[in-house]
């Protein structure tokens, strides 16, 4: 589960993906487990939920380059694009509304576009999942 955003710019709508990951880490009791993984230029935490092993990831790059961290983590942790959930803002949604979609295009979101490009995932195939909390 990757929280897209601009690392270090907390409290902005554009970094809501990272805020959601912080909350998820607290709910999964791994908030103290965040560590910097220089191999993928991201903060990572490992968690278990309902028998599933989760890698929580917050890229340490600007939004437009988040995909580089996610693609590196996918290689390091042996993940496929279809295993990755992206949490990001969506200006087309009212604040506080959540949408879940499977595949499709980036719809103008540069962080999502970066992920699609770095993961070599076709935008015409439903190969990634996006969760928009705002």
TrEMBL record:
Pfam families: Pept_tRNA_hydro
One annotated GO molecular function: peptidyl-tRNA hydrolase activity
PROSITE patterns tied to this protein: PEPT_TRNA_HYDROL_2
KW DNA repair (keyword) present: no
Annotated TM spans: none
EC number of this enzyme: 3.1.1.29
Keywords attached to this entry: Hydrolase, RNA-binding, tRNA-binding
PANTHER family tied to this protein: PEPTIDYL-TRNA HYDROLASE
Recorded family membership: Belongs to the PTH family.
Protein name: peptidyl-tRNA hydrolase
């Amino acid at each position: 589960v990757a929280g897209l955003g601009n690392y270090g710019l907390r409290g902005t709508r554009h970094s809501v993906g990272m805020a959601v990951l912080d909350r998820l880490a607290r709910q999964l009791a791994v908030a103290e487990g965040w560590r910097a993984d220089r191999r993928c230029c991201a903060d990572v935490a490992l968690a278990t939920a309902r028998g599933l092993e989760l890698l929580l990831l917050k890229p340490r790059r600007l939004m437009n380059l988040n995909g580089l961290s996610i693609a590196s983590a996918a290689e390091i942790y042996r993940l496929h694009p279809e295993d990755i959930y992206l949490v990001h803002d969506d200006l087309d949604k009212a604040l506080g509304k959540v949408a879940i979609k499977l595949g499709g295009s980036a719809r103008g979101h540069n962080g999502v576009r970066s992920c699609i490009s770095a993961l070599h995932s076709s935008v015409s195939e439903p190969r990634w999942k996006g969760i928009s909390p705002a």
